Amino acid sequence: MLVKPDTDLLLVVDVQNDFCPGGLLPVPGGGEVVAPINRLMGRFDHTVLTQDWHPADHMSFASAHPGRQPYDTVALAYGPQILWPDHCVQGSRGAEFHPDLDLTRAELVLRKGCDRGIDSYSAFMENDRTTPTGLAGYMRERGFERVFLTGLAFDVCVLWSAEDAHRLGFAAVLIDDACRSLDLDGSDGAARLRLRELEIPVVKGAQIGR
User: The Isochorismatase-like domain covers which part of the protein (predicted)?
Assistant: First the structure.
């Protein structure tokens, strides 16, 4: 699969300290995505990073709901919401990118989850499914047609980003070995099934060339 320099974009989703070993919401093997992502950046002319960036009292945190525990599900105004441990709080070390991630190639850093009342898994749309982050507009104005997705977590933010890219008319490709899953209650398998249903390719980094 050859990269088209002018119309392909590498999207690096939430490779932040809190999602890596030692963080407040670690994805198993999360730190292992850094090296393959850095290698992939050398094959793309255009890279965008997303950064979870929550206020300290974000409504997706279990701590904002007395009596609730992390990984409980509650009903918020926009629908069901999994409650998470406090993570990626604005300005905290946990919200910083993994120290080994190559930031020099990023043309845009898109912060998401900034609204206290709405979580934002997808790089394109907040969890109310109506509020855009601005990434789709950026891609259209820059002439990007296809997005290659990497990062954390495969079965949450990467999956939702791929679904939205597809729904918004962009071609999407998942790079499997540059992602890791939380795999809560079989969510990794469910994510792979969903991608097959949408006919979104899941490939290995070695299959990407230019």
Answer: 9-190
For the segment 10-21, the average pLDDT, to the nearest whole number, is: 98
Catalytic residue among 18, 52, 86, 112: 112
Radius of gyration of the chain (CA): 16
- Of 151, 56, 133, nearest to 94 (Cα)? 56
**Domain assignment of residue 31, yes or no:** yes
The CATH number assigned to the domain holding 12 equals 3.40.50.850
Indicate the pairing of strand 73-76 with strand 79-82.
Answer: antiparallel
Q: Is 112 a catalytic residue?
A: yes
What pLDDT score was predicted for residue 210?
81
- Say which of 20, 88, 157, 179 is annotated catalytic: 157
Our count of domains for the chain comes to 1
- Does 18 qualify as catalytic in the annotation? no
- What does the pLDDT look like over 152-191, one tens digit per residue? 999 999 999 999 999 999 999 999 999 999 998 899 999 9
4 is known as an active-site residue: no
The answer to whether position 19 is within a domain reads: yes
